[in-house]
Specification:
Layout (H helix, E strand, L loop, with lengths): L5 E2 L24 E8 L3 E9 L10 H5 L2 E3 L2 E5 L5 E4 L1 H14 L7 H14 L11 E10 L11 E11 L10 E5 L17 H16 L4 E5 L7 E4 L3 E6 L2 E5 L9 H12 L4 E4 L3 H9 L3 E8 L3 E10 L2 E4 L7 H14 L10 E5 L2
Parallel strand pairs: 1-3, 9-10, 9-16, 13-14
Antiparallel strand pairs: 2-3, 2-8, 4-7, 5-6, 5-7, 6-18, 7-8, 10-11, 12-13, 12-15, 15-16, 16-17
Helix pairs in contact: 2-3
Bound molecules: pyridoxal-5'-phosphate (PLP).
């Protein structure tokens, strides 16, 4: 079911960025955005593309007080042949609905949501940057906006999509990152909202991230919230290890975000004949493997960076170097294949990319 989308074009389009090497991440936004409202009586209604700008909100809006907000992150790519395409967008839409279910927000029609994304990207297609490694980042999000302070499932919500041209993540080449294992704060617990992509999980993770950065680390490696023993994620990425030839990644226990890059890596690795174990992995097991020279590679996975090699791990006063602090062979192969599929340079045998329009 498609939503009926009205389009109001801006009368003052912005200049497109002249220097694509300075795009960065999430700093610039396109000319338009998508908005759609939900009420209990009317369901989803008033789907509209309007000029990009501020969204007025009632000061009592649920999102301000109780953090009822979920989001997605995905990219539109300009392929080598000029076509503009999305990468596994239905996976993002399904995850958005799973997040909505967890936070008692209204779900969206899947086909209707895909149509919204395609319509907006096609309208903004000239904003999809051209340089290698760049893309148009899409940020769909939904929030509760009941205009009163009672605590209960919302009756009013808004779904929005904004778009931001983003630069090549690895403009200066892929450099392995230094990771600090966090033993005080936790990001999520089983039964909580860890598997939902919600703003609140990020609010809870900021303090550890700031502390790590202050101490010279790029990201935090999160441990499980109950025993502080099992590895969950790295920053806002899923994490994978190559141990003695096999790939190990934390299983989706409920506190781990089910990443689409994670899923794609697991599927690619299995198709290449690797054994991939989705299971609990403790820090002790990881450091034992490191001590025995069996920890061959470690990397994070996520839409923004695709893969991010881990070069150093810091835990309780000790530092471990992974793969000589260089990008591992398999990490590089994953990066080359995934970005190759996204940019249309490697054959998309699984049908992961969805064409939006000609460039
Ligand atoms: C979005 C996100 C990921 C990565 O998911 P992708 O679908 O691969 O982009 C991993 N962990 C957290 C906490 C996230 O929010």
């Amino acid at each position: 079911m498609k939503y009926s989308i009205s389009v109001t074009k801006t009368t003052s389009p912005k200049e497109k960025p002249a220097d694509e090497s300075k795009l960065g991440f999430g700093k610039l936004f396109t000319d338009h955005m998508f908005l759609m409202d939900y009420t209990q009586e009317k369901g989803w209604h008033d789907a509209r593309i309007v000029p990009f700008g501020p969204i007025p909100l009632h000061p009592a809006s649920t999102v301000f007080h109780y953090g009822v907000e979920i989001f997605e992150g995905m990219k539109a790519y300009r392929k080598a042949n000029g076509d503009i395409s999305l990468f596994r967008p239905m996976e993002n839409i399904k995850r958005l609905n799973n997040s909505a279910e967890r936070l008692c927000l209204p779900e969206l029609d899947e086909e209707g949501c895909l149509d919204i994304l395609m319509t907006l990207v096609e309208l903004e297609k000239d904003w999809v940057p051209h340089s290698e490694g760049t893309s148009l980042y899409l940020r769909p999000f939904m929030y509760g906006n009941d205009p009163h302070l009672g605590v209960h499932a919302v009756k009013n919500a808004t779904f929005a999509v904004i778009c931001s041209p983003v630069g090549a993540y690895y403009a200066e080449g892929i450099n392995p990152v230094k990771i600090a294992i966090e033993s005080q704060d936790v990001r999520a617990v089983r039964g909580g909202t860890g598997y939902a992509k919600c703003g609140g999980n990020y609010a809870a993770s900021l303090r550890a991230g700031e502390k790590a950065e202050k101490n010279g680390y790029t990201q935090v490696l999160w441990l499980d919230g109950v025993e502080r023993k099992y590895i969950e994620e790295v920053g806002a990425m899923n994490v994978m290890f190559k141990i003695d030839g096999k790939i190990v990644t934390p299983e989706l226990t409920g506190s781990v975000l089910p990443g689409i890059t994670r899923k794609s890596c697991v599927e690619l690795l299995r198709s290449w004949g690797y054994t991939v174990e989705e299971r609990l992995i403790s820090v002790d097991e990881l450091f034992e493997a490191a001590a025995n020279g069996k920890l061959e590679e470690a990397w994070g996975t996520g839409t923004a960076a695709v893969v991010s090699p881990i070069g150093q791990l810091f835990y309780k006063g000790e530092e471990y170097v992974v793969c000589d602090n260089k990008i591992g062979e398999l990490t590089q192969k994953l990066y080359d294949n995934l970005t190759g599929i996204q940019w249309g340079k490697v054959e998309d045998v699984n049908g992961w990319t969805v064409k939006v329009c000609n460039g």
